[in-house]
Amino acid sequence: MGGSEEVAQGSDGARVAVVVVGAPVGDDSAAPPPVAAAGAAPAVTPGEEAAKRESLLAAAAAAAECKQEAAAAATGLQAMAVTVARDVEAGGLDASTSGAADEKPSWFTPKRLLVMFCLINMLNYVDRGAIASNGVNGSRQSCTGGTCTSGSGIQGDFNLNNFEDGVLSSAFMVGLLIASPIFASLAKIHNPFRLIGVGLLVWTIATAGCGCSFDFWSITICRMLVGVGEASFISLAAPFIDDNAPAAQKTAWLAMFYMCIPTGIAVGYVYGGLVGNSLHWRAAFWGESILMLPFVILGFVIKPLELKGFNHSVKTKEYGEMLNPERQDETKQGASIGVDGLAETLPHKFSISSFGKKVLTEIKHFMKDMKELLQEKVYVINVLGYISYNFVIGAYSYWGPKAGQDIYNMASADIMFGGITIVCGIFGTLSGGFILDKIDSTISNAFKLLSGATFLGAIFCFGAFCFKSLYGFIPFFSVGELLVFATQAPVNYVCLHCVKPSLRPLSMAMSTVAIHIFGDVPSSPLVGLLQDKIHNWRSTALTLTSILFIAAIFWFIGIFVRSVDRFNEQSEHDVPAVERSNLRPLLDENEEARAS
């Protein structure tokens, strides 16, 4: 007996290694014994000692033959594992993913993933808009001329002054900025899809806690936890969308995702006003929590998706542990060690994995990744332009209505600026994504679109504030905001594609941290300080708008910096060859059609 290996060629070019256990080819020992010629003399009968010696030799030969058969079978099995792994890695073996396709819910497609993430993103920003609305935020009790008016909303119930009311927004940012890099680092040792589920669970509990808060400090802590929960989604959602979007529509899909930011804030204003005034401000937070609950359940129930550049799945699940070379080595060693030896090794393994050492190791890895991230010139230039851009947009959203009312005597500045921002935010963000896909999604083209749109947008916005007439201001400012918002998808496309796949969560997290710490957080008080010095809103608005030219300059420099799209670059976290054959594909619609 022995083993032989045959390789079959499939219709799609895939090769399948087949191990046949049976009689070895070309082995004379397995042939039938020759027939004795007629008339041959009978063999001489040996003595008793010779017969015993022959039986021992026959037994030794049989044992050697069994050993040879087992070795041949093992060689064929290992050859099959290597061949299957090589062919699946090349993408030619349909059967290797058929078992995985059966486990995948047929309804969970890339488009549905995009819709789910867009709804989650919108709910995040609905919360931001709701807490700023008059129905939820309310006003403090005031007394004028002996007549007192009762307070309303959060300010009225907790008797908060303006500073304490502002602290609620700052507490949210603190949680968001601290947790974003933490979740990005955890993505290397835990499945990112599950981390999103954990973050959404924290968000859901924290928003419900805001509705149950009883004083200033309780709602402040809850707002901080809301920021922590949102941090996981902000850091990890965009890489998932980038992985699953069609190659020709990656930026358009990102645009749809980021379009939910202005839309969510606008819906939050309306939602907070309606629910807060008709029911209670606490009911607005409870409603948000209930709306997010189905997505939390999906985050834990759906089989976790793998993010490109990471590997958190069980090895060789469909083909079995014996096809994993590492497992084969462990099996060989385990047979010689025995149960007693295995019991001795387990305590040693667990003693090394102490919590303190894990923390130090993760900090070391985080610092190594940060060093690599900051050495990426394209990423640094992109984020510098993004900081300058967000500095202006953050101040616009806070001071725009007040400046417009003072300069043009607008009767309804809130509605005017809010409407312009919502409409231009939606159409500008979508147009930026679709345009970049049409001209070919490359990092160089993204920088061209970023610098060109920002420069033209700055000209229109600057010119708008130069008009003395409201009828000249509105069309110029609308066109300017439309161009400025076209940068949302391209700037995040560069953040995702200028670094290797395993650094994408950290890239998104640190981009978020940077644009807030150095962008919109300090811009509002600095613009207020400038206005206190010069007492001229037109000059203040023109000075603020001129910073958009700085953003355009940074992104213009990015055009000439050598850039490489590293989306398909492998890293130390990529899946090994044998294991890659056993991973469920990431929401492949073609795979779904083939399975059906």
Structure description:
Pfam families: MFS_1. Residues 113-563 form the Major facilitator superfamily (MFS) profile domain. This is Major facilitator superfamily (MFS) profile domain-containing protein. Belongs to the major facilitator superfamily. Spinster (TC 2.A.1.49) family. InterPro entries: MFS, MFS_dom, MFS_spinster-like, MFS_trans_sf. The protein has 596 residues and is mostly helical. Among the domains are: 108-140 and 149-308, MFS general substrate transporter like domains (Growth Hormone, Chain: A, Up-down Bundle); 360-567, Growth Hormone, Chain: A. Helix content is 72%, strand content 4%. The protein has helices spanning 48-89, 98-103, 110-132, 134-137, 153-158, 162-186, 192-212, 216-244, 250-278, 281-301, 325-352, 355-374, 377-408, 413-438, 443-466, 470-485, 488-497, 504-534, 537-545, 547-560, 577-580, 589-595, and strands at 2-9, 15-22, 142-144, 147-149. The chain has a two-stranded antiparallel ribbon with strand order 1-2. Strand 3 and strand 4 form a beta hairpin. Helix 6 runs parallel beside helix 8 (216-244) and helix 15 (443-466) runs antiparallel to helix 16 (470-485). It is globular, with a radius of gyration of 33 Å.
